[in-house]
């Protein structure tokens, strides 16, 4: 697999270490298929041990989880200067863009999105993964309007049921108090973020947002927030039980599913994606990117040229990155420990 197997059509997003493109496969049995191509510059991340670890973890997590609510990985390969993740193309844009257009959601719409995101998070947790970066930007909508969680770069994998971690990472407005206080934390941090997401959808803003980062962190640690007016008692109750300072008594997956806010939710139909989405993204044609930010889609759809000084000669740093999806693979059980061992060995060798 090589970059020339794909024709780049549009830029969908850009970060400090690379870009995400809309690309069409021009070779092989899946010739003509649209994909999302994530290109990461090796030279930009090779001296950042944490980012290398996160990149490799994302690659292994994408391979080893299987849920209709998670973005699928089809290929992973590398060149002398870049890493490539070839994922399913999710054409409906993200929930952040949707909220920008409508300001806030109805309770029925918020209930639908929260339920599908919960199923995505629950699947990750059952496979020993804490997501750690839940926010509207990472909740994509497919062509039918169903949720697809994406961007697994900050995930923590291979955690036992009661095992904790302590890495300070995420997006401040969505980070739980225990994370901000640099205490050890577990899966409950994701349920806090689900509460913030619900608040954001119902009100149009974060409960703790200020223009001052330090002030936002102080407010989060206190876990005191203004309750949204004109929402149901059930929604208020769920918000209080999720945006709850004590992680030990914070509501989890089973508690959320049985909460009165989801009293009429058929979870079997929800898991089978048989519940009609509240919104279906518009598509003029197959390559239409109108659901994405024009600040990116208006960029020239081409990769930066490869410079000799950007080559990374140490192949061991990204050993095991390459991957080709086997279409007949069935569900894979909890993440293989060997992924963690291979990753740790790679990092240790380069310290």
Question: What features would you highlight for this structure?
Answer:
Phosphorylase Kinase, domain 1; 351 residues; 2 domains; 13% strand; 12 helices; alpha+beta
Structure report:
By secondary structure, the protein is of the alpha+beta class. It folds into two domains: 3-90 and 288-349, Phosphorylase Kinase, domain 1 (2-Layer Sandwich), CATH 3.30.200; 95-271, Transferase(Phosphotransferase), domain 1. It is built from twelve helices and eight strands. The strands form two sheets. The protein has a six-stranded antiparallel beta sheet. A two-stranded antiparallel sheet has the order 6-7. Strand 6 (139-141) and strand 7 (147-149) form a beta hairpin. Helix 6 packs antiparallel against helix 8 (233-242). The longest helix is centred in the first third of the chain and has 20 residues, at 107-126. It is globular, with a radius of gyration of 20 Å.
What structural class should be given to the helix and strand makeup?
alpha+beta
Major β-sheet strand ordering: 1-2-3-5-4-8
Tell me roughly what share of residues is in helical segments: 25-40%
Count the domains: 2
N→C terminal distance: 29 Å
Cα shape: globular
**Unreliable stretches:** 328-343, 346-351
Q: What count of helical segments does DSSP give?
A: 12
* Overall residue-averaged pLDDT value: 89
Q: How much is the radius of gyration in Å?
A: 20 Å
CATH classification class of the largest domain: Mainly Alpha
Q: What is the CATH superfamily classification of the largest domain?
A: Transferase(Phosphotransferase) domain 1
Major β-sheet annotation: 6 strands, antiparallel
């Amino acid at each position: 697999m090589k970059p020339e197997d794909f024709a780049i059509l549009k830029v969908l997003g850009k970060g400090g270490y690379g870009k995400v493109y809309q690309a069409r496969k021009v070779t092989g049995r899946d010739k003509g298929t649209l994909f999302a191509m994530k290109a990461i510059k090796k030279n930009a991340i090779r001296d950042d041990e944490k980012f290398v670890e996160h990149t490799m973890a994302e690659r292994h997590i994408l391979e080893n989880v299987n849920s209709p609510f998670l973005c699928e990985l089809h290929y992973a390969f590398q060149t002398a200067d870049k890493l490539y993740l070839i994922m399913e193309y999710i054409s409906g844009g993200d929930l952040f863009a949707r909220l920008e257009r409508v300001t806030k959601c109805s309770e029925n719409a918020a209930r639908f999105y929260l339920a599908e995101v919960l199923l995505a998070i629950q699947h990750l947790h059952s496979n020993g993964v804490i997501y750690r970066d839940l926010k509207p930007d990472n909740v994509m909508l497919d062509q039918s309007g169903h949720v697809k969680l994406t961007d697994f770069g900050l995930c923590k994998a291979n955690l036992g049921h009661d095992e904790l971690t302590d890495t300070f990472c995420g997006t401040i407005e969505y980070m739980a108090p225990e994370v901000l206080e640099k205490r050890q934390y577990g899966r409950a941090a994701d349920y806090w973020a689900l509460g913030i997401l619900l608040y954001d959808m119902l009100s149009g803003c974060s409960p703790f947002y200020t223009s001052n980062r330090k002030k936002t962190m102080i407010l989060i640690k206190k876990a005191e927030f203004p309750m949204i007016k004109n929402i149901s008692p059930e929604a208020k109750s769920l918000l209080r039980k999720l945006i709850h300072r004590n992680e030990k008594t914070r509501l989890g997956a089973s508690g959320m599913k049985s909460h009165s806010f989801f009293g009429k939710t058929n979870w079997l139909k929800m898991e089978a994606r048989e519940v009609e989405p509240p919104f279906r993204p518009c598509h003029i044609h197959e390559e239409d990117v109108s659901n994405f930010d024009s600040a990116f889609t208006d960029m020239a759809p081409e990769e930066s040229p490869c410079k000799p000084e950007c080559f990374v000669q140490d192949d061991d740093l990204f050993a095991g990155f390459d991957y080709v999806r086997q279409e007949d693979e069935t569900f894979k059980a909890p993440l293989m420990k060997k992924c963690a061992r291979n990753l740790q060995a790679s990092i240790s060798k380069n310290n």
